[in-house]
TrEMBL record:
EC number(s) on file: 2.7.13.3
Entries under SUPFAM superfamilies matching the protein: GAF domain-like, PYP-like sensor domain (PAS domain)
GO biological process: regulation of DNA-templated transcription
UniProt keyword Kinase, yes or no: yes
Keyword field: Kinase, Phosphoprotein, Transferase
Protein name: histidine kinase
Any Pfam family: GAF_2
NCBIfam families the record matches: sensory_box (TIGR00229)
One term of GO molecular function: protein histidine kinase activity
Catalytic activity from the UniProt record: ATP + protein L-histidine = ADP + protein N-phospho-L-histidine
Superkingdom assignment: Bacteria
Domain PAC: 405-455
Domain PAS: residue ranges: 74-144, 232-278, 332-402
């Protein structure tokens, strides 16, 4: 109450009387009051109070009613707060008997005890907590005015387990209260969250403790130099990994004194870059002087800055062994590359379906540079007839199976030449993924000679199966066509005069072709016999030299090779082989010439034998006729 003079009041309990607004405002700042009563002439000084009711009076006779109104309103306010507040207020005696409970107890599913019914508050607590609660109440009751905070477990009216936080104060010395006041709050949910947070904190702490590196955090303002920021946390692995415990590195910036001078700028730039680019993980490697070992170790740092919390978080791991292995691997790769680049053999590595390494011998043999070799699937360099086989074996090896480790196949170089490789392969790993290391020797010349011999042996064996001319032609044609994978082909023989058709043998669609009785000047065979060398035809059906009589029987899209059949100094006929694809290359055509010469000589001998046999037969016939004539003359 603010009054400039004495105000006679019989009941002044709970009132603080001052004689000026300044003293009243000072008292309000020092401790809470329920309201202000002022002389009307001083009311203007309290216009700024918006959290307390202010009452004005003019005469002293108004004060009793005014104070009674203030008390009633204050009681109503406290009652409203008690009934609608989150907490439940109990007044109990030292033994725990409830003397008063606020109406908000209904939120826990309870009803206030009826008047005259004595209920002990301890009965609602868990049995294992009742002893501790009794001891807390005894401690609270020993000294009036004492305040304590404690937590107990109990059950609500529905029998559900709850957790309560209790703020207690001994107001037994206050006549209006005369007991222990307990402010009880249901903190079950908060308790569960706290326990969960505690469990997660312990889990995180255990997880960090098991990490091989050091986790750390520092609080850095966005404009602050990270070298001057104090470290908030450093995991226990610091001593083992860095050789220093957290206290030894506590001074801001000290950590960077142990970074190698050549790497210090990079390490400092890492932290500053994290502040410039928040929310992004930044990494760097540098050398650090180990505090216990006294040697330089390699550390890999990963840092990230969160501007919301102003925390610079990082993880430092000793990667000295990784760096040593990487250097050893680099040295090994350098030695391998030097060896591979100087080796005369083809050395390559491929992963998936692409080359990842090809040495100089590979580039020289194929005619492609590195970029060209890497830009296409590795199978595209293999000869079409060998491609499926090579792909199947390569993929089987990638899957961990063990196909033939050594075999031969053909490749086609940039100039279109076919080269033979004697190839060996093994499964390796590149960056943790399966790959194939292959080594090949160019055995083209030896393989070509081997194929020449094989072809000659096949054809010779086929020609020896029969002395009969037509059978010999068929056997020889089938042997050559099988060797060159030709689905169709033919052999045609001409008489000694070189124009009359003497014999014809064919396979595949060429069986439907009938040769002309005489060699026609406008024909593919005539062109071959006239020039005396192989004739390669890209599209037989479209060639203008093809006989018009047989053009309708020739399928489209077929290529062919026509060769003369030499026998000594003359040609006795022609050999034709056809394919539904491009014709063979120069080396295969040269091999075909060998086969044609072998067939031509053999057929010539067979033909001569056949002519000789016919002449012998004619002579025998004449001899028999002569004998018959002579015998008839003797009879006369």
């Amino acid at each position: 109450m603010v009054a400039r003079g004495e105000v006679p009041l019989q009941d002044a309990a709970g009132l603080l009387r001052v004689d000026s607004p300044a003293r009243a405002l000072a008292a309000l700042a020092a401790e809470p009051f329920d309201g202000v009563v002022v002389e009307r002439g001083l009311l203007e000084a309290f216009r700024g109070l918006d959290h307390l009711p202010v009452y004005a009076f003019e005469r002293a006779e108004e004060l009793p009613d005014l104070l009674e109104t203030l008390r009633a309103q204050t009681l109503e306010r406290y009652k409203t707060l008690l009934e609608n507040g989150r907490d439940v207020v109990y007044v109990i005696d030292p033994e725990g008997t409830i003397r008063y409970v606020s109406p908000s107890v209904r939120r826990l599913g309870f009803r206030p005890p009826p008047p005259g019914v004595r209920i002990n508050l301890l009965r609602f607590l868990q049995p294992e907590d009742q002893r501790q609660a009794r001891e807390a109440l005894e401690a609270l009751a020993r000294e009036p005015g004492q305040a304590l905070t404690f937590r107990f477990r109990g059950r609500d009216a529905h029998g559900r387990d709850r957790v309560f936080r209790v703020w207690g104060k001994n107001l037994s010395h206050v006549p209006a209260v005369g007991g222990l006041v307990l402010q009880v709050r249901d903190v079950t949910r908060e308790d569960a969250l706290e326990r969960r947070l505690q469990e997660e904190s312990e889990l995180l702490a255990n997880l960090v403790a098991t990490l091989p590196g050091v986790a750390w955090q520092a609080r850095v303002a966005p404009t602050q130099d990270p070298l001057r920021a104090p470290t908030l946390y450093q995991s226990p692995r610091s001593t083992a990994v860095l050789g220093y415990d957290a206290e030894e590195l506590a001074r801001p910036g000290l950590y960077y004194d142990y970074v190698h001078p050549d790497d210090r700028a990079d390490a400092v730039a890492l932290a500053r870059r994290a502040l410039r680019e928040p929310g992004v993980f930044h990494t760097a490697r540098y050398r650090f002087l180990h505090g216990r070992k006294g040697t330089w170790i390699w550390l890999a740092d990963t840092v990230r800055y969160d501007p919301a919390t102003q925390l610079l978080s990082g993880y430092s791991e000793d990667v000295s062994e990784d760096v040593a292995r990487s250097r050893a691997l680099s040295e090994s790769e350098a030695r391998f590359r030097t060896l591979a680049e100087t080796a005369p053999a083809v050395i390559l590595m491929w992963q998936g379906d692409r080359l990842v390494f090809a040495n100089q011998a590979t580039r020289r043999l194929t005619g492609y540079d590195d970029e060209e070799l890497r830009s296409r699937p590795v199978w595209e360099f293999v000869h079409p007839e060998d491609r499926d086989r090579v792909r199947h074996r390569g993929l089987e090896r990638l899957r961990g199976r063990r196909p033939s480790e050594r075999y031969a196949f053909r490749i086609v170089n940039k100039q279109g030449e076919v080269r033979w490789l004697d190839y060996s392969a093994a499964r390796i790993e590149i960056r943790g993924e399966p790959a194939v290391l292959g080594v090949g020797l160019d055995v083209t010349e030896a393989k070509e000679k081997e194929l020449d011999l094989e072809l000659f042996a096949r054809v010779a064996q086929a020609l020896r199966r029969s002395e009969e001319l037509e059978t010999m032609m068929r056997e020889g044609l089938e042997a050559v066509a099988s060797f060159f994978h030709a689905p169709a082909g033919a052999i045609v023989l001409y008489g000694e005069e070189g124009s009359r058709t003497e014999a014809f043998s064919a396979i595949g669609w060429m069986r439907s072709l009938r040769p002309a009785p005489q060699l026609e000047r406008q024909s593919l065979v005539a062109a071959v016999l006239r020039d005396g060398r192989p004739l390669v035809v890209e599209e037989i059906a479209a060639d203008p030299r093809l006989r018009e009589a047989v053009r309708p029987q020739v399928p489209h899209g077929w290529s062919g090779v026509y060769l003369p059949l030499p026998a000594g100094r003359r040609f006795v006929g022609a050999l034709a082989l056809t394919w539904p694809k491009p014709p063979p290359g120069e080396r295969e055509i040269a091999r075909l010439e060998l086969a044609a010469e072998t067939i031509g000589n053999a057929i010539q001998r067979a033909s001569l034998r056949q002519v000789l046999a016919r002449r012998v037969q004619n002579l025998e016939s004449l001899r028999t006729l002569d004998q018959v004539i002579a015998h008839s003359l003797d009879l006369e």
